[in-house]
Structure formats: structure tokens, C-alpha cells
């Protein structure tokens, strides 16, 4: 059947980084524009005192701008990276392909997995800050006994606003408020642009394949950004929990018959499973849909959508990806 595929695996969020540099240059005084890119990647500004951070599980006090940071949340890591700040420790086993350089670097400490931190290693390193979120959020009670820990989990029912709030929090922690605000402003502009393009694009259905099974996601859920912010009309009223979606059949997809079918290949993102999403959906039933007939089955970048999911940098990448698909119509 006819399909379209987009991928951002080859580069790590280059579009928002470039947009940030341009925005900073535009705001710089005369003679400073050439240094904008360097300023964006500069070390965090020194803090005159403690920083109080409000987060999903309470309030955490930092002595100042943290010099040593361990992050268990890839959405937060992507924002920190975009602000030009280095992370010293990550769960290497769970690293998405976009952060393969961190996973392979001898200078970056392996701090365990998303679900099982290496508490002994973390305690030995005594980081100034540990960041958790989503899958790793349950580990905060133990981690905070070792080092200051904040939970930057996303609220999947309001992904954009919680992602923007987390970005601004990260900016304040590292003395990069202006740069974080530029990331937020760039995302807002991109959302408005894609939403205008999607106004006449028709309906869409988001599905995730895993182990040969198919699950649908709708507005207000984990992947609802496509509907709630980017403006695609839902092809069906999906009854779902924010995280887990609704199990569906191929017949359901045909009966729903969306104009667009956005497909997330979970097995590709996690390195598991014997069948790709293309193989799962390569059948006579799906071939009868409008999406297949019009070359509007889009196999999205699963690392960004599934592993990253939240955070302004990931949402920016998703908006850019969807915008490019609409431009190619």
C-alpha cells in the first residue's frame, strides 16, 4: 500500500536549536548577533543564592545553579541539551537513538534504568540535581534521600502547557530563562502554523503498534497533541486512559476510515518485536482505507513520539514533522 514515512533520527532537534540561535541574534544589540549562537551554548550563569523549584511531587531547594546533573527524563534532557547545558548522568540502557552519543560516552555516567536507578553509583557521585519524570517518577522518594530531586513529569491531559512550564523551570534552574522562553515562543509559533495547515486536512487517527497488536489514541490523551494543539479533527471518539489507549482491530480502522493515519511503531522505539508497523498494517483491510488510497499513512518517528513524548523540544520536533507532511501534500 502507499505510505509516507518521516524520520528525525539523523539529527538531534536541529530545527529548534537553529530557531533559538536566530531568535537570540534578532534580540541582541548591534555587534552582538555574531555571538548569539555561542551565548546560547554558554555555561549556566552563577546563582547568587538558593533556588526553590516547584515540581510534580512538591518543592525542592537547590543551593544554586547545579554543576552536576543526572537526568532520568529524556524530555527534560532534550531541553537541557537545547539550552547548551551538559548532563553528567543518564540511564544509558534506555537512551533513545537521538541520545546515542550520551549512551556511548565514557564521560557520561550510567545511572541505572528508568525504573531501577543505580542508587549506589548516584550516591557515590553526589550530584547537585537529579531529574525524574514519567516512567522514573516513582523513584523520587528514594532518590531525594541521596540528592536534590525534582519530578518534571508531563501532564498528558495538558501536554503543551505542562511541557512549557517544565521548560521554563529548567531555564530558571540553569540561569537560562531567556533561552527557555525562546524555545516556548518558537513552539507556540510552530503550533499556530501547523494548525492553520491542518484546518482543511480532514480527520486523523493515531495508532500504536506493539507485538502485532494495534492501539488507538485520541484527543486529550498521551498523543493528543495532534488533535488538541495541531488541529487535526479526531476520526473517532477514542475512550482511553491517558497512557494506555484503546485496543482496536483492523476492521475498526476501516470503519473509522480516517483521512490520515498516524502510526507509532513502539517495537522500533524499544528495539523489541518481530514485526515492523509497516508489516503489521500491510493487509487488505488497511489497503481499503482512504488514508492508504491517498498516501496518507504516516509512520512517524517513534523515538520522538513514544520515548520522548513530552517536553518542548520533542513537541517542536513533532510539530515540524507534521508540518512537513502537510507541506508535502
Automatic annotation (TrEMBL):
GO terms, biological process: iron coordination entity transport
Keywords: Signal, Transport
InterPro entries on file: ABC_transptr_periplasmic_BD, Bact_iron-sidero_bind, FatB
One Pfam family linked to the record: Peripla_BP_2
CDD domains named among the record's database cross-references: FatB
Gene3D superfamilies documented for this protein: Nitrogenase molybdenum iron protein domain
SUPFAM superfamilies (alphabetical): Helical backbone' metal receptor (SSF53807)
Transmembrane segments: none
GO cellular component: a single term: outer membrane-bounded periplasmic space
Localization: Cell envelope
Signal peptide boundaries: 1-32
Residue span(s) of domain Fe/B12 periplasmic-binding: 68-329
Family membership: Belongs to the bacterial solute-binding protein 8 family.
Name the record gives this protein: Iron complex transport system substrate-binding protein
Amino acid at each position: 500500500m502507499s505510505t509516507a514515512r518521516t524520520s528525525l533520527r539523523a539529527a538531534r532537534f536541529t530545527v529548534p536549536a537553529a530557531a533559538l540561535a536566530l531568535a537570540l541574534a534578532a534580540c541582541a544589540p548591534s555587534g552582538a548577533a555574531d555571538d548569539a549562537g555561542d551565548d546560547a551554548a554558554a555555561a549556566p550563569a552563577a546563582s547568587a543564592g538558593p533556588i526553590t523549584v516547584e515540581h510534580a511531587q512538591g518543592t525542592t531547594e537547590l543551593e544554586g545553579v547545579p554543576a552536576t546533573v543526572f537526568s532520568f527524563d529524556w524530555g527534560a534532557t532534550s531541553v537541557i541539551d537545547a539550552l547548551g547545558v551538559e548532563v553528567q548522568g543518564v540511564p544509558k540502557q534506555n537512551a533513545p537513538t537521538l541520545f546515542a552519543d550520551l549512551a556511548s560516552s565514557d564521560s557520561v555516567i550510567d545511572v541505572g534504568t528508568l525504573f531501577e536507578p543505580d542508587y549506589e553509583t548516584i550516591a557515590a557521585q553526589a550530584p547537585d540535581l537529579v531529574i525524574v519524570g514519567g516512567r522514573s517518577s516513582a523513584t523520587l522518594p528514594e532518590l531525594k534521600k541521596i540528592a536534590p530531586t525534582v519530578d518534571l513529569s508531563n501532564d498528558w491531559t495538558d501536554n503543551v502547557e505542562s511541557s512549557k512550564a517544565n521548560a521554563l523551570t529548567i531555564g530558571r534552574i540553569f540561569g537560562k530563562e531567556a533561552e527557555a522562553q525562546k524555545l516556548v515562543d518558537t513552539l507556540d509559533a510552530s503550533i499556530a502554523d501547523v494548525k492553520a495547515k491542518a484546518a482543511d486536512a480532514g480527520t486523523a487517527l493515531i495508532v500504536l503498534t506493539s507485538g502485532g497488536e494495534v492501539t488507538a489514541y485520541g484527543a486529550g490523551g498521551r498523543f493528543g497533541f495532534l488533535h488538541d494543539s495541531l488541529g487535526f479533527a479526531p476520526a473517532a471518539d477514542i475512550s482511553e486512559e491517558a497512557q494506555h489507549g484503546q485496543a482496536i482491530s483492523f476492521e475498526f480502522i476501516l470503519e473509522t476510515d480516517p483521512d490520515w493515519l498516524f502510526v507509532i511503531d513502539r517495537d522500533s522505539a524499544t528495539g523489541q518485536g518481530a514485526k515492523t508497523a509497516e508489516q503489521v498494517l500491510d493487509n487488505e483491510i488497511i489497503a481499503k482505507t482512504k488514508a492508504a488510497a491517498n498516501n496518507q499513512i504516516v509512520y512517524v518517528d517513534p523515538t520522538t513520539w513514544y520515548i520522548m513524548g513530552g517536553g518542548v523540544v520533542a513537541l517542536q520536533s513533532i510539530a515540524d514533522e507534521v508540518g512537513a507532511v502537510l507541506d508535502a501534500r
